[in-house]
């Protein structure tokens, strides 16, 4: 009977871990996609990188769920995946065609430039810093996610505020 009790507790623990990951997935996925979308106009990377990062998180959930901010770890993985895929695709594109400017919908669309589109016009690092800041991460947490110094995050945020002000005032 003792082994049956241990088995039941083990099954309950697995169920609890599954349920906690499912809740994490539901809460975290939209925020990961928002961060990634702020970094690129090419949406094919966003969903794939978010999903792949969440798969990696699930594989390591027993360890990652104990982190102070498991979402930050997952965003970091997603950003790295997306950047690696973009770099690979850029190298392949350069080999097959003129790697000229590929303008996304935000740049090509006529009409009013909204904040999200303006953020996407920032450099990848600045856009990621702004989006993470808007999600409520501290500068230290943003630095950890983006693998840069805290001062670099402060600089990115300051420059981004100025750039966004200019971009948004252009449209008025």
UniProtKB/TrEMBL annotation:
| InterPro entries tied to this protein | RNA_pol_sigma-70-like (IPR039425), RNA_pol_sigma-70_dom (IPR014284), RNA_pol_sigma70_r2 (IPR007627), RNA_pol_sigma70_r4_t2 (IPR013249), RNA_pol_sigma_r2 (IPR013325), RNA_pol_sigma_r3/r4-like (IPR013324), WH-like_DNA-bd_sf (IPR036388)
Instruction: Return any one Pfam family short name.
Output: Sigma70_r2
Q: Which positions fall inside the RNA polymerase sigma factor 70 region 4 type domain?
A: 113-164
Keyword Glycosyltransferase in the entry? The reply is no
Residue limits of the RNA polymerase sigma-70 region domain?
24-83
Alphabetically ordered keywords of this record: DNA-binding, Sigma factor, Transcription, Transcription regulation
Family under the similarity heading:
Belongs to the sigma-70 factor family. ECF subfamily.
Designated name of the protein: Sigma-70 family RNA polymerase sigma factor
Which species does this protein come from? Answer: Saccharopolyspora taberi
């Amino acid at each position: 009977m003792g082994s049956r009790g241990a088995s039941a507790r083990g099954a309950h623990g697995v169920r609890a871990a599954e349920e906690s990951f499912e809740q994490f997935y539901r809460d975290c996925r939209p925020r990961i996609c928002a961060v990634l979308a702020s970094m690129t106009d090419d949406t094919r990377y966003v969903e794939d990188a978010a999903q792949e990062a969440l798969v990696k998180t699930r594989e390591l959930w027993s360890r990652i769920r104990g982190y102070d901010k498991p979402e930050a770890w997952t965003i970091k993985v997603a950003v790295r995946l997306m950047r690696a895929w973009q770099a690979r695709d850029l190298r392949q594109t350069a080999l097959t065609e003129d790697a000229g400017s590929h303008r996304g919908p935000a740049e090509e669309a006529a009409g009013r430039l909204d904040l999200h589109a303006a953020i996407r016009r920032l450099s990848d690092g600045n856009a990621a810093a702004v989006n993470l800041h808007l999600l409520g991460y501290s500068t230290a947490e943003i630095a950890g996610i983006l693998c840069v110094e805290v001062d670099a995050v402060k600089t990115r945020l300051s420059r981004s505020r100025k750039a966004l002000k200019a971009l948004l005032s252009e449209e008025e």
